[in-house]
UniProtKB/TrEMBL annotation:
<feature type="domain" description="FAD-binding PCMH-type">
    <location>
        <begin position="43"/>
        <end position="216"/>
    </location>
</feature>
<keyword id="KW-0560">Oxidoreductase</keyword>
<dbReference type="InterPro" id="IPR004113">
    <property type="entry name" value="FAD-bd_oxidored_4_C"/>
</dbReference>
<keyword id="KW-0285">Flavoprotein</keyword>
<dbReference type="InterPro" id="IPR006094">
    <property type="entry name" value="Oxid_FAD_bind_N"/>
</dbReference>
<dbReference type="Pfam" id="PF02913">
    <property type="entry name" value="FAD-oxidase_C"/>
</dbReference>
<dbReference type="InterPro" id="IPR016169">
    <property type="entry name" value="FAD-bd_PCMH_sub2"/>
</dbReference>
<dbReference type="InterPro" id="IPR036318">
    <property type="entry name" value="FAD-bd_PCMH-like_sf"/>
</dbReference>
<dbReference type="InterPro" id="IPR016166">
    <property type="entry name" value="FAD-bd_PCMH"/>
</dbReference>
<comment type="similarity">
    <text>Belongs to the FAD-binding oxidoreductase/transferase type 4 family.</text>
</comment>
<keyword id="KW-0809">Transit peptide</keyword>
<dbReference type="InterPro" id="IPR016164">
    <property type="entry name" value="FAD-linked_Oxase-like_C"/>
</dbReference>
<dbReference type="InterPro" id="IPR016171">
    <property type="entry name" value="Vanillyl_alc_oxidase_C-sub2"/>
</dbReference>
<dbReference type="Pfam" id="PF01565">
    <property type="entry name" value="FAD_binding_4"/>
</dbReference>
<keyword id="KW-0274">FAD</keyword>
<protein>
    <recommendedName>
        <fullName>D-lactate dehydrogenase (cytochrome)</fullName>
        <ecNumber>1.1.2.4</ecNumber>
    </recommendedName>
</protein>
Length: 486
């Protein structure tokens, strides 16, 4: 980027704009600890300048300049994914939206709020609770994920089973478009607000959202079912989602995950040997009573055990799934959007894969619709071990292959899942998505290098062949299980 443009931006934004190398370096990665030798041939992740706007007008000013000068522009807030969704691929301007974190307006009688897109979901939930309201749903990363970020990442998580994805709760979204104009997108606008869902910041930058919320629940209740195998667990889940008394959240874990939780002092020895389903309900006293009856019915139908004494503890730790990293030093894995009807078959094939590779695989997930779950399968890894980490990435590809075999696809694309984009979308859907991008951002300025197609070195055919060959080699590093090298 031209040095004079940088100086002009620093003059305009003062200490909220920086070209300091140390500060910019923090924006070169997200939660994924990907070694430089893999990143550098594919993306130029160091932004030329980082700017921290405080309102929509400032974001629009930056976007208009970027459009006029054809400077790549990437928006970022929580950075709580692992796919480089919010990491630059072509340098340029990095817009840090964490300053847009205000609760702008509350219409308490109609249960509607307007909130800055940089506010985290947990900040919003606590602010609403103080005035007798609550969000309808939030991500499992609510303590870091922002309101705007979750919308553009599709927005399925806790509460989605009962209330739907976040885009169905959004009334409108104030959005800075790629040309620098500001539009209030809603269901009837052109483009509609639904275009933002899953766009991952490639079609515009959301700055404020008008959102439906709900009265703060009067009561809550938590159950934890103990299942012998994945088939029994699937039957329990299928029974639970058929009832009108849907739980707020259904979270499941396999024995690998539960055994690790036990080693870390977070679960009982009994749970460590089982598949479990956390059944969390809230609402009025009548709603939670009905949900509790649904839970009891599911236990009876599937002859499942009850670990009710651990249910509250499980709920209190709902944001800490990645505490599993403590056995570390790091984790690799695949997050898969999977039909519930395929859950047992998927986990069966994961067990077979584990028997061959001995990785210490562990799986957990959330049921987010009556038909689908988001499943995370992961294993320990060490990014400092160059060859072993590269082999680990190849094994992640094999996990995605198992998911695809059972009708699943990656949840989220960003950069690292672009080799799987044809699994995420049909050919017709992909044509439509590319047309939207061309219509709204013809110069490909807004978060370039993401979502729509893989860069040359991640070409799906070459990537698949290379990863399959690498996965077939003898492992030189397989992480740590229970503190011992394997």
């Amino acid at each position: 980027m031209d040095a004079q443009i940088s100086e002009n931006l620093k003059t305009a934004f003062g200490d909220r704009a920086t070209t300091d190398l140390f500060e910019r370096g923090f924006y070169q990665r997200d939660l994924a600890p990907v070694p430089d030798f893999l990143v550098n041939p594919i993306a130029d992740t160091l932004p030329d300048i980082v700017i921290r706007p405080q309102n929509t007008a400032e974001v629009a000013y930056i976007a208009k300049l970027a459009a006029e000068k054809e400077i790549p522009m990437t928006a970022r807030a929580g950075g709580s994914t692992v796919y480089f969704n919010t990491v630059c691929t072509r340098k340029g301007i990095l817009v840090d939206l964490n300053g847009l974190d205000q609760l702008v307006a509350v219409e308490q009688e109609s249960n509607i709020v307007r909130v800055g897109a940089g506010m985290t979901w947990w900040q919003l939930e606590r602010a609403l609770n103080r005035i007798g309201l609550a969000t309808c749903s939030y991500p499992s990363s609510a303590q870091a994920a922002t309101v705007g970020g979750w919308l553009v990442m599709m927005g399925y998580g806790l509460g989605s089973l009962k209330y739907g994805p976040v885009v169905e709760q959004v009334i409108s979204a104030q959005t800075v478009m790629p040309d620098g104009s500001v539009q209030e997108l809603n269901a009837m606008s052109k483009p509609p607000v639904s275009w933002l869902a899953g766009s991952e910041g490639t079609l515009g930058i959301v700055t404020e959202i008008e959102l439906r919320v709900r009265p703060q629940p009067e009561t809550e209740w938590h159950g934890l079912a103990e299942l012998e195998d994945a088939r029994q667990m699937q039957r329990f889940i299928e029974s639970a989602v058929l009832s009108a008394a849907l739980p707020f959240n259904l979270h499941f874990s396999d024995p690998g995950c539960n055994a690790l939780r036990h080693r870390l002092g977070l679960g009982s020895e009994r749970a460590a040997k089982a598949y479990t389903v956390a059944f969390d309900a809230d609402g009025s006293a009548a709603e939670t009573a009905a949900a509790q009856k649904n839970y009891s019915k599911c236990l009876h139908i599937t002859t499942a055990g009850d670990l009710g004494e651990e249910a509250e503890h499980e709920w209190q730790h709902r944001f800490f799934s990645l505490v599993l990293k403590r056995e570390g030093p790091s984790l690799l894995g695949a997050e898969i959007w999977l039909p519930i009807s395929s859950l047992a078959a998927y986990l069966h094939d994961i067990e077979l894969f584990e028997s061959k590779k001995n990785l210490g695989l562990k799986s957990y997930g959330h049921v987010v619709t009556a038909q689908h779950a988001m499943v995370m399968t992961m294993f320990n890894a060490d990014e400092r071990d160059t060859i072993g980490y590269l082999q680990g990435l190849a094994l992640v590809k094999k996990l995605h292959d198992i998911g695809a075999k059972h009708g699943g696809c990656p949840y989220g694309v960003g950069l690292w899942n672009t080799p799987y984009v044809s699994r995420c979308h049909t050919a017709a859907e992909l044509v439509e998505l590319k047309q939207r991008k061309k219509l709204l951002d013809p110069n490909n300025i807004m978060n370039p290098g993401k979502v729509y197609q893989a860069p040359l070195l991640l070409n799906p055919a070459l990537f698949s062949l290379g990863m399959d060959l690498l996965a077939a080699t003898t492992l030189v590093y397989r992480g740590k299980i229970g503190g011992e090298q394997v």
